[in-house]
Amino acid sequence: MEERTFRRCLGILTALAVGMQCLLLTEAWQNNPFARLPIEDAEVYWTWAGRIADGHWVGETPFLSAPLYPYLLGFLRSLGLDLPGVYTFQAILHAGTLLMIGLLGRLRFGAKTGLSAAAVYLLLADPSFAPGRILNGTLQLFTLTAFLYGTVRFVCRQKSGPPPPRHAPLLLGFLFGLATLANPTLLLALPFLAWWMPRSTTAPWLIAALLTLAPATLHNYAACGEFIPISAQAGVTFFHGNASGAQGVYHAIEGVSTGRLQQNADAFRMAADATGQPGWGNTSSYFFQKGLQNLTQDPVGALELISKKLKWFFFGQNYGDVYLPKLEIKEALTRYPIPQIPLIFLLPLAFLGLFHLLRQDRRKALPEILFFLLPLLVVIVFWYSPRYRLPMAPLTALFAAWAASRAPIRRNLLPGITLGAMAAFLPPALGFDSPSLYQGQFQHSLGATYRVNQQPGKALPHLQEAIQRGYTPASAYYNLAQTHMALEDWENAAISLQKTVGRDPKHQEAWENLGILMAWQQKPKEAVSALQKAIALAQERKDLKSVQRIQQRLDALP
């Protein structure tokens, strides 16, 4: 294929990616409440970025998730960009990733494979959904693909053509550092890549990579006085996936909030109480040990748990620990302009491509092999989330395109498509990971989002349906109570608050609101009891502002 034809076709695919994202984002902004309000992890990122934009560069705790994304968000917010501007920026990153996949495929396997890989990536559902949410998936994909493109170009220029410039190892080290700050699990690849690099370039590559990572380590030391390379939450995340009763996906820890804003504080306090050694490194170690203890005490159960994680990895396509794209489409909140392909449909073909690559030149392809398999390792060690599997997407598109183009149809393409179709369509038909299983969670998230967007009339039926479908954690009743209060339905609000504290006796806000309602209903004894429980919880958390506020309410009672 001529260079001009390749560039023209790749340019068209890149433009299609931008156009498709523009349509998606415009429609979502008009119709989808999730696009207008970051929730759960997205809310944490957005709030964190706001503090960074205001000049608070060093937090009160070490990093508890990948730090590159919130700092990028903070920079964008400091420029005056709001949610639509950030989504637009992420759409550009998404198109840039597609462009680099095409260039990477051409260097590695030829122009036709490069274009095929870019076209496949355009149709993948998971990467297409990511730019419209305040989550770090799009940045992870972009930085990972940039590093892979840089390494492949470096190898190709060493074997043929003009030699790579002297600064090439420094640039590769910088790109690896950025990719790792966006996805800390890539740190596991550092020693393998240092061994893979030519000896004359290992030192400058390693120095550049470590210097790029150093600001995160320095931030953590400034925040808590401990040596934490990037993030301090690995142990808690490990226990979420390996606690007693875990089923391969996120599993709540008893006594630790499921909300990110409170979760880490609860885990810190639990570890400090158990060990007598307060510290973030100690918190991570404490939960790592608890998770390992569960696994070693029951080896058979540990193997069963790993099999469940693998089942989710290869067959899961509807479960989401924050957002549920399939149900958003079903609810007509999101409409894709072209059909989308689930990632699991291409995994069998991609693994066939990996198999042929291992047979052909495993040392040359070490970076691609490592980064393709790392998400699988992350799921096995921790737990399955579509966000943990997402970094496979660029190499899945590349390996699947190469496998489909390198052999007769009966050898690769037909078995790969057959297995992919079985993975995509058979499990939901048998009841595994069916979208209907998450309707309660989805209706609650939708109702809560409408409530925060000050649309209580729209929120109420969704929150009620969530409870009717069996989604009954404390948060479901608390959101329902707040909706009733917004609608001035005080009686039902009080009932929902009582159910909230019945499920979570440590829900400080629910006790406080219940006390206010009891006082308004002229039930002073019940009001005093509820407010006293609220103030005790605030004192336990050392929340002095809440203590002062609740005390003022108590003092105002007759």
Poorly predicted spans: none
Distance between the termini: 85 Å
The share of residues in helices is over 70%
**Most strands sheet:** none
Broad structural category:
mainly alpha
Number-wise, the strands total 0
Report the C-alpha radius of gyration, rounded. 25 Å
* Tally of domains: 3
Counting H and I runs of at least 4 residues, what is the number of helices?
Answer: 28
Classify the oligomer. Answer: single chain
Morphology call: globular
In sequence order, what are the helices and strands, one letter per element?
A: HHHHHHHHHHHHHHHHHHHHHHHHHHHH
Round the mean pLDDT to the nearest integer and report it.
90
Strand percentage lies at under 5%
Overall description:
The chain has 558 residues and is mainly α. Helix content is 73%, strand content 0%. The protein contains 28 helices and no strands. The model has no long low-confidence stretch (mean pLDDT 90).
Write the SSE topology.
Blueprint: H1 3-31, H2 33-36, H3 41-53, H4 68-78, H5 83-109, H6 111-123, H7 125-129, H8 137-159, H9 168-182, H10 190-196, H11 199-224, H12 234-242, H13 260-275, H14 280-297, H15 299-315, H16 325-330, H17 343-361, H18 366-381, H19 386-389, H20 393-405, H21 413-429, H22 439-452, H23 456-468, H24 474-486, H25 490-503, H26 508-520, H27 524-540, H28 544-556
